[in-house]
Amino acid sequence: MDANLDSELRDDFLVEAGELVQRLGEQLIELEASPHDRELLNAVFRVFHTVKGGAGFLSIEPMVQLCHCAEELLNDARNARLVLGAAHMDALLEALDLLNVMMAALANGEPMSPPPPTLLQRLQPVVEHSPAAQPVPARAADPIEAEFEALLNTLYGQGGSPGVPAHASKEIGDDEFESLLDTLHGKGAAPGAAPSSSVAERTDISEDEFEALLDNLHGKGAAPGGVAVSSPAPAPEPAPVEAARSAKPSQAENTVRVDTARLDTLVNRAGELVLLRNRLLSLATRSENETLSTMAGDLDRVSDDLQTAVLGMRMQPVGRLFQRFPRIVRDLARQLGKDIELIQEGEDTDLDRSLVEALADPLIHLLRNAVDHGLEDPAGRERAGKPRKGKVKLSASQRGERIVISVSDDGRGMDPEVLRRKAVEKGVIDAAQAARLSEVECYELIFRPGFSTAATISDISGRGVGMDVVKTRVAELGGTLQVHSRLGHGSTLELTVPLTLAILRVLMVRVGDRLFALPLSNVSEVFELNPQHDHMLDGRRVAAHRGRALVLGDLGEWACIGGPGGRHVVVLHVGHMHLGCLVHEVIGREDVMVKPLGPLFEGVPGVAGATVTGDGRLALVLDLAALSQDGGRLLPSLKVSA
Fold it and tell me: Is 80 exceeded by the pLDDT of residue 562?
């Protein structure tokens, strides 16, 4: 097999196997809770079996050995020879971790070490005949498998070939494998179809299709370290071949893999079109030309539809992000001696793919906080009249143009008085400031650097850095945080982020003769400042607004613009903080494409980039997360504000 084909097959294997393994951790946690779930047990078994087959074809012996041992353990569970317990699941999860390491090494061209003998020993089944266990029936024949049988009969001949040994080499010819792939992806039946050149350009296949291909190529029930292949056979009957050609195409053929770089290019071009549309609409508004106005309106409609379609291509289900969390909660619960059920809702909510990985660390911190601080131990829950098993709920939903992800628990809740006392003890605020804090502001103290209510420091929590990291990261993403708690009943931390970061919706404001764009996702409201409500408190300028003191920052002072300050207040919600930004004029909302300013202005605090307005002027797009920090100079006193 030539090097180019070998590299392409390796990439195919990594993509297909990666998709199967991606959800395996969540499936294993579900299987631990429901060890007699036949469908789930079959699904987990098929993942290890399929990956083993692909690894065997590529002669990746360490991966074959690992998957075979996991497969044997699961097969004994399927045949009712044992019931999977916590020790079995620990070994399977460790095998999953090692499998991910092996796949990363294969992708990077690095050498792969054999699996540790201790892990393989732990994967050896200890047969326990249990009356509660029932044999798992074999799954029904898949139509795709029938199609593959016909294809293999065509390639090798039906019924056996004279002079060909029963055990053939585990490799098949390049032409044979290409023929299988072409037919699988719907290219064999169309005359003149171009061959596939890369993973990104070919049609996607499903898990069952991929498994059927490997099963038929390598044979089922392979021994460790090797893969068997069916023997060549004589020429087939015409009927199976015609049936294979006339088989109905799979629905999976409607999906196509696209390189993310191409997708980003398309999004950027759509953003450029948005800027041109804005300019044309501005010209049409000032013009009395009816034809121009009509064309501008048509372009507005078409560009909106195109923008929606392009942004939809960037979306991924948030379930891809949620898949990693059952394992984390399970390991923490075992480490802390707690009994916890993780409930997930809204996994099909779509989220910009750039946010999926960015939200991983903040959500891990929120879940660790709920498991460690929020939930009592089983004995404590019994004393409080609660079930021994605590519940942590992770949910996602879409509200308008924002995605809301919440982490809630039914634990002890937060005590505002304890939070006040701890904040004063740790020097986060002084006693006078603590006395003025409302209940909601007390909850927001958990996001302060160095704040922690843990009595002892462990490898899980107690250093006062976790929630501060969450606040910083969410603010960088243009998101907000809110805390709701009820003493004795539990807490909810709600994280809100924009639906997409590709095309930014901003509120355009004027300070002096300069234009600034404030991300609309952080804008709560706009009002005109009444001089009677303008006060100084603890050395900070505040406005009495909606029954609380709103800290004010003058955007003109930050931009070094002389003259009287603005009287319009834009209320911003950055991270967990609310603050007011003084400007001279609020112009209105626009959709913009943010452009970098280049290396000369790189690193300027508070500036995210620039954009072109509808009338052709330049406007700075502000980085509100950086502006609200000490170095941003807009609100240097926020360190002690709520």
Answer: no
Distance between CA atoms of residues 24 and 99, nearest Å? 11
DSSP at 224 = T
CB burial of 605-616 (b: ≥16 within 10 Å; e: otherwise) equals ebbbbbbbbbee
The whole-angstrom separation of Cα 41 and Cα 71 is: 11
Give me 356's structure tokens: 């999926």
User: Which tokens is 139 given?
Assistant: 């799954």
> What is the residue whose two structure tokens read 């409500």?
533
Q: pLDDT tens digits, residue range 83-106?
A: 888 888 889 999 999 999 998 898
Asked if 392 and 471 sit in the same domain, the reply is yes
Residue 72 shares a structural domain with residue 216: no
**C-beta of residue 555 within 8 angstroms of C-beta of residue 582:** yes
Report the distance separating Cα 380 and Cα 388, nearest Å. Answer: 8
429, with CB counted inside 10 A (0-12, 13-18, 19+), is buried
End-to-end CA distance of the chain: 66
Asked if 620 contacts 516 with a C-beta cutoff of 8 angstroms, the reply is yes
The domain of 442 spans 317-498
Distances (CA, A) of 199 to 10, 14, 23, 434: 10, 10, 21, 59
Round to whole Å and give the CA distance between 211 and 54.
9
Do residues 452 and 463 make contact, with C-beta atoms less than 8 angstroms apart? yes
Q: Does 604 fall in a domain?
A: yes
Joined tokens for residue 636? 């240097």
Burial of 354 (0-12, 13-18, 19+ CB in 10 A): middle
What is the value of pTM for the model shown?
Answer: 0.63
**Higher-pLDDT residue of 302, 230:** 302
Here the tokens at position 550 are 């709103």
Flag whether 171 is in a domain.
yes
Residue 342, pLDDT score: 92
Say if CB 63 and CB 220 are below 8 A apart.
no
Q: Is residue 127 part of a domain?
A: no
Q: How many domains does the chain have?
A: 5
Is 555:583 a contact under the CB 8 Å cutoff? yes
Structural contact between residues 218 and 227, judged by C-beta atoms closer than 8 angstroms: yes
- Alpha carbon of 116 to those of 123, 140, 229, 402, 621: distances in Å? 11, 36, 28, 46, 53
Query: Are residue 544 and residue 445 in the same domain, yes or no?
Result: no
Phi, psi of 317 (to 5 degrees): -65, 140
pLDDT of residue 142: 45
Q: Which two tokens stand for residue 203?
A: 């049609």
3-state secondary structure of 423: helix
> For the chain, how are helix, strand and coil distributed in percent, rounded to 5?
45, 20, 35
Stretch (H or E) spanning 352: strand 350-352
Residue range 126-184, pLDDT digits in tens: 654 444 444 444 444 444 444 444 544 544 444 433 333 333 344 455 555 555 555 55
Phi, psi of 374 (to 5 degrees): -75, -50
- Give which of 531, 528, 374, 403 is closest to 461, Cα–Cα: 374
- Which CATH number goes with the domain that contains 565? 2.30.30.40
CA distances from 230 to 142, 161, 515 (A): 19, 11, 72
227: which 2 tokens? 């893969």
